[in-house]
Design a protein that fits this description.
Elements lengths: L24 H6 L5 H71 L1 H10 L9 E6 L5 E5 L14 H8 L6 E2 L13 E8 L5 E9 L10 H4 L4 E6 L4 E6 L2 E3 L14 E4 L8 E8 L4 E8 H4 L1 H55 L3 E9 L5 E9 L1 H7 L3 H4 L4 H4 L2 H5 L1 H11 L2 E7 L9 E9 L2 E8 L1 H15 L9 H18 L2 E10 L1 H8 L1 H17 L6 E6 L2 E9 L7 H12 L2 E3 L2 E3 L2 E9 L6 H17 L5 E3 L6 H22 L7 E10 L5 E12 L3 E3 L1 H11 L2 H21 L6 E5 L2 H5 L3 H12 L6 E6 H6 L1 H14 L2 E7 L6 H6 L4 E4 L1 H4 L6 H16 L3 E4 L5 H9 L4 E2 L10 H9 L9
Parallel strand pairs: 22-23, 25-27, 27-28, 28-29, 29-30, 30-31, 31-32
Antiparallel strand pairs: 1-2, 1-5, 3-4, 4-5, 6-7, 6-11, 7-8, 9-10, 10-11, 12-13, 12-16, 14-15, 15-16, 17-19, 17-22, 18-19, 20-21, 24-25, 24-32, 25-26
The chain binds ligand LFPHGCPZ.
The site of ligand LFPHGCPZ has 23 residues, from strand 25, helix 20, helix 21 and strand 29.
């Protein structure tokens, strides 16, 4: 999403309204009940109960119908059986009546024979017809009995009852065997009367009980149905259940209610049956039919099982369905709860959030593409950011709210996210609206049916980040680009120059004398000066040039697209030099520094940043060596300086070691002595000891070259100690030679002065040499004293108390305040040769020199000028009351023998240069 336009409020509205309308309590309480997994099981249970109620109802109805059918069946079968039995018994009774008539008329045997002949007897296979006389002896029988004794039935009930009374009714005996037939059989009998109506015996029809149950049909009565004849006495005459024929059982009399159907277990087999008895008139018997309840209800039982199975299956299916639906619903509810929880958390978080949230719903066109995005939800921060209430925002389309989003690609990007997913982000500086002037960050992600946009106010973070980036690339003090930034720009400039075939100039600038100001006036003064110098240098540059502070008092100028000729830079470099040299007011004082610069050109002096910087640094050092306040263009030989330093340091170390082992002078160190002359008398009152060093291979090395190295490496402490002891010994030697006593001045470097044992070393040098303390003067610089004023003064006091005098060297170049100068325990001020050099012509130097002379005198100090080379300088100094001088005008530093010679020449005359 590229540089979106500000998402700004289009209108300003009233304070945002509350975002959500709470639902009534009853609605909230009812809502869970609507969950499927809660409402469905009871509903399903109701369904199941209903199913079973219907099922049982139907079963009960069916059972009743089946029972009714069974009863009806039993009744009908009973009726049918009754009819059959009535016919059979009627037939038997007819036969008995015929037999009775015939016997009473013809006698037993003829009667039977006649009836048989006429076919009026029942089939012999089934029936036996017999006649017993009044004594109970069977007298006739058809079919004829096997031969044997007469059969007596006089004790049989069917005989005795007829004998006892003439009922006029036939009689059916219980099934029993007798002497005529052993297997049980039934006797149907009628009384025979004689002519007078007296008992004449009985007519008998005997038949098997099975005869009365032969009507049994499985198709009607079933496998366990029952048919039977029962006497009024409740005793079964014949009964068939399935294939079993039986007799003799006692049935409850209650069963024998005519035509009534009862469910009972009477047959002794424990099987419940629907029983129906029908009264058979004539013989005092009942025809009884029983249908096995199980068989009668078998169809119903099957249907019942089907119903139950269907209901059970339905129940099981419903239970499974409900379980599945409930599980699904529970899962869905759980998911919804977690979504709701997340939404509530989100809502709470979003309301508390400092970011604005918008939920957009995609609006689709006819072709299915997203044509707009409609705000569905926004948080309080979004209301504030847009100045619209949620009610106003809801339903608003993004392209209505921010029409420019169509043009600048923001809408397209959001629609892309809504359609394809992914994330789009953008940062921009709002230009209008409530957020105008603030940095905003937009992040859009896909949500179901649309997109979610989060707008964060990243102004503070952005500015902080910018600040950090700025800090990382700029110098804190001057605000100029720093070393890192310069490297980046230099690298870019090289790339650009390479592409365009151009040159780049790099100028390494180091301030001359800055250290003195920094050490002397304090760091804040130094800082102030650096800022001023930075501004001045910046003012000399073009747009597109870079001035960087490289650290300390080093600056680097990057000048892209310069002419290949380095000399073309000369005007700029001079301008820079002059700008730097202008006096500056810092810490209430006017100070002045100059600068030394080294210049390199890309591609001539290096093709990469490191090489160019290194060579510019080397050139700058060469400029410093060359007297400062100038610049040098880099040449290949300049890089040799670093290596030179190493060689010199090594040589110094060797010489120092040798000097400490052997004081004989073979180590390379020597001292020259420069006379100090009293101006008024021309008398040499002292000498300054000046160190010289001869490198074993490279010969004489200038002090300005090796003193700094010795100072930096710390070797100056021991070298200075050697110089101190040598100078003291020499001074004492002169005295011992009878020469006029003179003071010997020895230079003390900052490191030497700060060394803990300085006073002891001085005392030791004096003691070793025998030189009285007033024969020694130590020269220290203002800067050295100002480093740690209190300690310096304390040390100087100690030395003074020892009798050693102190002078301030190079006075005027440091920045000691007058008040502190007053407290210095010194006896002499030395005007620095830089003020003496142009003393004859330069009013500024003249002013400084006269001021120093005057100041020194006011403080009751002697004033000496160094570097006096001309008569004019000497004349000026003398005319302005300067007390002493030293310089080539009188003598260069010379060996001790020459000093001895000079001491013999009184007054001192100038030495030939
Ligand atoms: N700590 C120590 N510093 C020392 C010692 N010996 C010397 N030095 C310091 O080295 C600097 C350079 O010294 P040198 O090259 O010896 O220069 C001195 C004089 O030779 C020179 N001078 C004297 N008269 C004239 C003159 O008329 N013209 C002219 N161009 N130069 C002249 O001035 C230097 C004297 O310096 P100063 O100390 O400020 O008096 C120098 O800073 C020495 O201090 C040492 O043993 N220890």
């Amino acid at each position: 999403m590229n540089a979106p336009q500000p998402m700004s409020p289009l209108t300003s509205g009233p304070p945002p309204a509350s975002a959500s309308k709470p639902r009534p309590g009853w609605a909230r309480r009812l809502t869970p009940l609507l969950e499927t997994h809660i409402s469905l099981p009871p509903f399903a249970l109701l369904l199941i109960v209903a199913l079973w109620v219907v099922t049982f109802h139907m079963i009960r109805t069916e059972r009743a119908a089946a029972e009714q059918g069974a009863r009806e069946g039993a009744r009908k079968l009973a009726e049918t059986y009754e009819a059959q039995m009535a016919r059979s018994l009627s037939g038997i009774d007819q036969t008995l009546k015929m037999l009775k008539y015939a016997v009473e008329r013809d006698g037993p045997a003829p009667a039977l024979a006649t009836l048989r002949q006429r076919g009026l007897l029942p089939p012999a296979m089934l029936f036996v017809a017999a006649v017993a006389d009044r004594h109970g002896v069977l007298v006739a029988r058809s079919p004829s009995p096997p031969p044997g004794p007469p059969v007596d039935i006089s004790h049989e009930p069917h005989f005795t009852m007829h004998r006892a009374a003439d009922t006029g009714m036939p009689y059916a005996s219980r099934a029993s065997g007798d002497s005529m037939r052993h297997e049980p059989h039934l006797h149907f009998t009628r009384r025979l009367n004689d002519a007078k109506g007296g008992f004449a015996g009985i007519a008998i029809i005997v038949t098997d009980p099975a005869y009365f149950t032969s009507a049994y049909e499985r198709s009607r009565e079933g496998d366990h149905g029952m048919l039977g004849l029962v006497g009024d006495d409740g005793v079964v005459r014949a009964m068939r259940i399935g294939d079993q024929v039986s007799w003799g059982q006692h049935l409850p009399m209650a069963l024998l209610k005519d035509g009534q159907v009862r469910l009972d277990t009477v047959a002794g087999d424990g099987t419940p049956r629907y029983l129906c008895a029908r009264r058979l008139h004539g013989f005092g018997m009942y025809a009884i039919v029983g249908l096995d309840a199980k068989e009668a209800m078998a169809a119903f039982a099957r249907r019942e099982r089907t119903w139950l199975a269907a209901a059970a299956t339905g129940t099981a299916l419903l239970a499974i369905l409900v379980a599945l639906l409930s599980a699904w619903s529970w899962q869905a509810a759980r998911a919804r709860r977690s979504v709701r929880h997340a939404q509530e958390t989100y809502a709470a978080a979003s309301e508390a959030s400092v970011d604005a949230f918008f939920v957009f719903r995609s609006v689709f066109g006819a072709d299915g593409s997203i044509v707009d995005l409609e705000i569905e939800m926004a948080n309080g921060r979004a209301e504030k950011m847009t100045g619209r209430s949620l009610d106003q925002l809801r339903g608003t389309r993004i392209c209505e709210l921010m029409p420019h989003y169509r043009r600048n690609g923001v809408f397209a990007a959001m629609a892309r996210v809504a359609r394809d997913g992914g994330v789009e982000q953008a940062e921009w500086l709002a230009e209008v609206g409530t957020m105008a002037g603030r940095w905003l960050h937009l992040r859009v992600v896909q949500v179901e049916g649309g997109a979610f946009a989060m707008i964060s106010d990243i102004n503070e973070r952005k500015l902080a980040a910018d600040r950090i980036v700025h800090m990382a690339h700029h110098d804190d003090l001057t605000g100029l680009p720093n070393r890192t930034m310069l490297r980046l720009r230099l690298t870019e400039a090289i790339v650009e120059a390479e592409r365009k075939q151009e040159c780049v100039a790099l100028v390494f600038v180091d301030l001359d004398g800055f250290k003195l100001i920094n050490d002397g006036l304090g760091h804040s003064a130094g800082d102030e000066l650096l800022k001023v110098i930075g501004q001045r240098m910046q003012a000399c540059l073009r747009r597109g040039d870079t001035l960087a502070r490289f650290g300390g008092d080093e600056f680097v100028l990057l000048l892209p697209a310069t002419r290949p000729d380095p000399q073309a830079l000369a005007p700029l470099l001079d301008k820079l030099r002059h700008a730097v040299q202008e006096p500056a007011q810092v810490a209430g004082q006017s100070v002045q520094v100059s600068c030394s610069a080294g210049v390199v050109m890309y591609p001539r002096d290096g093709r990469d940043a490191d090489t160019l910087l290194m060579n510019a640094d080397a050139a700058m050092y060469r400029a410093k060596d060359g007297g400062r306040n100038n610049y040098r263009f880099y040449t290949r030989d300049m890089n040799a300086r670093g290596e030179e330093n190493l060689v010199l340091l090594d040589g110094l170390r060797q010489s120092l070691d040798a000097s400490m082992a052997d004081d004989g002078g073979a180590h390379g160190f020597t001292l020259l002595y420069q006379p100090k002359i009293e101006l008024a008398s021309g008398r040499m009152f002292g000498v300054e000891a000046l160190l010289r060093w001869e490198h074993p291979e490279h010969g004489q090395i200038a002090p300005a070259r090796f003193i700094g190295l010795a100072e930096d490496s710390g070797m100056i402490v021991d070298i200075g100690d050697w110089a101190l002891r040598t100078a003291c010994r020499q001074a004492m030697a002169w005295r011992a030679a009878g020469l006029p006593p003179i003071t010997v001045s020895v230079n003390v470097s900052p490191r030497q002065f700060e060394e803990r044992r300085l006073v002891e070393r001085v005392a030791a040098a004096l003691a070793d040499s025998g030189l009285p303390p007033d024969g020694l003067e130590l020269e220290v610089t203002e800067t050295l004293i100002m480093r740690d004023l209190a300690q310096s003064i304390a040390k100087m006091r100690t030395l003074q108390q020892m009798g050693v005098s102190l002078s301030i060297d190079d006075f005027g170049t440091g920045y000691s305040s007058l008040s502190s100068l007053k407290s210095f325990p010194i006896s002499r001020l030395k005007i620095d040769q830089t003020f003496v050099r142009e003393l004859a012509d330069n009013p500024g130097d003249q002013a400084i020199a006269t001021a120093v002379i005057s100041l020194g005198h006011k403080l009751k100090l002697r004033v000496i000028a160094e570097g006096v080379e001309t008569e004019a300088q000497c004349a000026f100094l003398r005319a302005h009351g300067c007390d002493e001088m030293q310089g080539y005008l009188f003598s260069k530093p010379v060996p001790p023998e020459r000093i001895a010679a000079l001491l013999l020449e009184e007054p001192c005359q100038p030495e030939a240069a």
